[in-house]
Amino acid sequence: MKNQLDHATIRLDTTIIPGGYWGGLIAKGQYLRIIDLDGQQAVDFLCYDAHNPKNRYNAANTIKIAGNIYLNKGSILWSEAADHLATITDDTCGLHDTIYGCCSKEVNMVRYGEAAPACRENFLAALKKYNLGARDIVSNVNFFMNVSVGPNGELTICEGLSKPGDYVELRAERDLITVLSNCPQKFNPCSGFNPSPVRVLIYSLKE
Ligand SMILES: [Zn+2]
């Protein structure tokens, strides 16, 4: 672990088991780093203005303001009211998905004939302590998920690009409620067909 972590005050350092979830507050100016420990592991992510959760991450605004469906270093996560929620300040993977949404037991049943554990249920569990629920789940970010778009709009979930130890780092531009699901999906390549742990760090930089 290099660079600005040498000058950071660590607020949280935790490992999320395969298929697990996490939710927490990140104060304005603090950083969140998600580390894909074994590589090729999708992490589904949502964030909300902590003081007004209705002002939440908005995928369409994020895509249209950037003019791009992929996230990487320098990308901004925009809210429903076009406020700047977070900035991707570092990224060693280079490509993250905004369009594919999360897996759910219901969609797993339709696509794969089995209601296997899924990110939507993880989001619901993580949101509960903030009194948020199903109506607060919107189209989410999929960190480390590689979705390609063909010339006629064909979508393919491709093998993940992240190598063991790759990370993405965000700076909160407002106080945020954040939730993430370490995707339990085993029927497509988003988790390398073998869900693996990720590490989550929250830190602030010393003045
Ligand atoms: Zn999932």
Name a few traits of the molecule.
14 strands, about 210 residues, six-stranded antiparallel β-sheet, mainly beta
Summed up:
The chain has one domain (3-205). The mean pLDDT is 96.
| Global outline | globular
Number of strands: 14
State the secondary-structure class: mainly beta
How much strand content do the residues show? 35-45%
Please report the distance between the alpha carbons of the first and last residues: 20 Å
Instruction: Write out the distinct hetero groups bound to the structure.
Output: zinc ion
| Overall helicity | 10-25%
Question: What summary fits the major beta sheet?
Answer: 6 strands, antiparallel
State the helix count: 3
Task: Round the Cα radius of gyration to an integer and report it.
Answer: 16 Å
Mean pLDDT: 96
Instruction: Please state how the strands of the largest beta sheet are arranged side by side.
Output: 1-14-3-12-7-6
Q: What is the string of SSEs from the N terminus onward? A: EEEEHEEEEHHEEEEEE
Enumerate the spans where pLDDT stays under 50 for 5 or more consecutive residues.
none
Query: How many structural units, i.e. domains?
Result: 1
